[in-house]
Amino acid sequence: MSPVRVLIVDDSATVRAALKTLLGRQSSIEVVGEAGEGRSAIAQVLRLSPDVVLMDLEMPGMDGLSAMEHIRSQRPTPIVVVTSRTRRDEVATAFAAVKRGAVAVFPKPEVPSAWENLASSLIATLNGLVPRRPDLAPTSQTDTPPPVRRPFRYLVVGASTGGPAAVHSLLRALGTGTGLGVAVVQHISAGFEHGLAEWLARELAMDIAVARNGEPLRPETVRLAPSGAHLILQEGGTLLVDREAPPRNGHRPSVDELLLSAARSVPLRTAGALLTGMGTDGVEGLATLRRAGGLTLTQNAESCAVFGMPRAAIELGAAELVLPPDRIGSYLRCTVLGNST
Questions:
Q1: Residue 267, in any domain of the structure
Q2: Could you tell me if 107 and 261 are in contact, meaning their C-beta atoms sit under 8 angstroms apart?
Q3: Is 113 a catalytic residue?
Q4: 148 domain residue, yes or no
Q5: Are 223 and 184 within 8 A, CB to CB?
Q6: Residues 51, 168, 169, 187: which is the catalytic one?
Q7: Domain for residue 146, yes or no?
Q8: SS3 96
Q9: H-type helices in the chain, by residue range?
C-alpha cells in the first residue's frame, strides 16, 4: 500500500520540523509539504492533494478553522487537528473544528518527553485513515426492520477516531424525551474529555458531562468516561469510575469494559452502539451484550472516519443493525417510544 501523504500546517517552524522528523521515520507515511498559515495550507492542498492534513488552529493570518472551511468546499480532505489545550478557549476551538469535519484532535506536547507519545498516536491515526478498498467495506443495511418497542433504560456507546462527530450525530437524532440514560466511552487525548462534554452539551442542549464515581445514570443524561478510568454500569444504573483496573488491550477507558458491564448488570434494558474507530475495542463487549439479550448496533462503513471497530463487530456477528449514526439515534428513539419510522 502506498504511504499516507501528509501536509503539516502550523505557524511554528519548530513544531513543523518536529512533526516532520517524527513522522518521517515511518515508511507508511510521507510528509509531502508544510504550511505556516491557512491561505498557504489551502494552496498546498490544491497543489499536492494530500491524503491527510495535520492542522494547527491558532495561526496568524487565516486561522485553521477558516482554512478548514475552504478545504472542505474546494477539495475535501481528512483533517487531524494538533493544537494546544492550555486554555479553555483553545479546547473549545478544537471542538469547533470537529463540527467543521476534523476527524481527530490531539494536544500539542507541553514537555519534550511527550512528543514521542504524540507521534505514536498520530502514526496510528494517519495509517487508519488510509482510504479503504471498496470490496472490503460492508454497506448499510437496506432491509432495516421496523423498530419494535422495547423498554430500554440505557444506551452504552463506544467510539474512537472520528467519534466526536459520530456521537454528536447519534445524540442529535436520539433527541430528548426517550428517558434513556447514555454512557459513552470515547477514546480521546487526556484533557479533552471535559471540552468534548461541554461542546456536546452546548450543541445539543442536553445534560452532558464527564461521569463522577457513584452517580446514577439518570434518564435524559449523557455521561462520558473520564480520562484514565474505566466506566462501569452497575446493577441499578450506578456508574463506577474505576481508576485501579489495568488498561484492557491498551485502553483505559475501554469500550469493552463498559459494554461488558452492561451485559452483566442490565442487558435486557440496554442498547449498545459501536461507532467509528481503529482496532477492536468494544467488539467483545458488543457480542456479549447481544448474547445477553441487549440490542446491538454499529456504524456503517460509508459514514465511518475509520472502519475498524465496526468492521470487526460486523465480522464477528456482534451487531444486529448496521446504520449511520443519525439513523442509529432515530432507530433507538422509535424503539423506545414506539413510533414508526
A1: yes
A2: no
A3: no
A4: no
A5: yes
A6: 187
A7: no
A8: helix
A9: 13-24, 38-48, 64-74, 88-99, 114-128, 163-174, 193-204, 255-265, 283-291, 309-316, 325-337
Query: What is the domain range of residue 268?
Result: 154-337
Q: Does 168 participate in catalysis according to the annotation?
A: no
Has 169 been annotated as catalytic?
no
Phi, psi of 285 (to 5 degrees): -65, -40
200 and 332 together in one domain: yes
pLDDT tens digits along 92-151: 788 889 988 899 999 888 788 788 888 888 998 998 886 544 444 455 665 677 888 888
Q: What is the largest CA-CA distance in the chain?
A: 57
Q: What amino acid is encoded at 339 in this protein?
A: N
Active-site annotation holder among 10, 281, 303, 330: 281
The set of long-range contacts for 244-251, using a CB threshold of 8 Å and a minimum separation of 24, is 248/281, 249/279, 249/280, 249/281, 251/187, 251/281
Cis peptide before 253 (omega within 30 of 0): yes
Catalytic residue selected from 160, 169, 254, 330: 160
247/262 Cα distance (integer angstroms): 18
Interval 236-275: pLDDT, tens: 999 999 999 999 999 999 999 999 999 999 999 999 999 9
Question: How many other C-beta atoms lie within 10 A of the C-beta of residue 133?
Answer: 8
Could you tell me how many helices (H) and strands (E) the chain has, helices first? 11, 14
